[in-house]
Amino acid sequence: MDIKIESESELSETESPGNEHLCMSRRSFLLAGGGAVVLSTLPGMASAVKLVAKEYPRVKIASLKDLKTDQPVDFSYPPNNPMSTFFIVKLGEEAGMGVGRKKDIVAFSNLCSHMGGPLNGTYKAEHKAMGPCPLHLTTFDLTRHGMVISGHATESLPQAQLEISHGNIYAVGVMGLIYGQHDNLA
Ligand code: FES
């Protein structure tokens, strides 16, 4: 159930006590499901982040070598729901639940948490944000678990939990309710 790490550099970063809050193991992520509250210590973030997690099938979504900074790549997830698309992006700066050497690779739903507006193509590299949503202008902070920066949405953008193995990136679960679903069911 634990994250599989290939390179020594990734291992040392992942297991460094000072970085424990930035790279949850899959086990701790799942233990946080069901409404547990976890405090993030990312710079400037004082509020609690409510984690409602669901484990989905483990799916390869990208290779580390193919990801380029600030260039999001879309993928379908969960695999049995073609209406649900996510994007993975290498932010170039540390982010909550980020993976990789810099903990800067994250993935989120393309469906706005407010009313499902399509967020595809709205990535803002200068702010590491997604949006504004074309329907009601919500913008989400990708460095802080998809928290709302501004707009009508009240829920964070659902974030995919990622794992790295043999240079590949896998999605293994989702934190938050994907728009259009009644529950976090696979
Ligand atoms: S659907 Fe995105 S802000 Fe309303």
Automatic annotation (TrEMBL):
InterPro entries in the record: AioB/IdrB_ssu (IPR014067), Rieske_2Fe-2S (IPR017941), Rieske_2Fe-2S_sf (IPR036922), TAT_signal (IPR006311)
One GO MF term: metal ion binding
PROSITE patterns found in the cross-reference section: RIESKE, TAT
Keywords: 2Fe-2S, Iron, Iron-sulfur, Metal-binding, Oxidoreductase
Record region (Disordered): 1-20
EC number: 1.20.98.1
Domain annotation Rieske: ranges: 70-171
Name this polypeptide is given: Arsenite oxidase small subunit
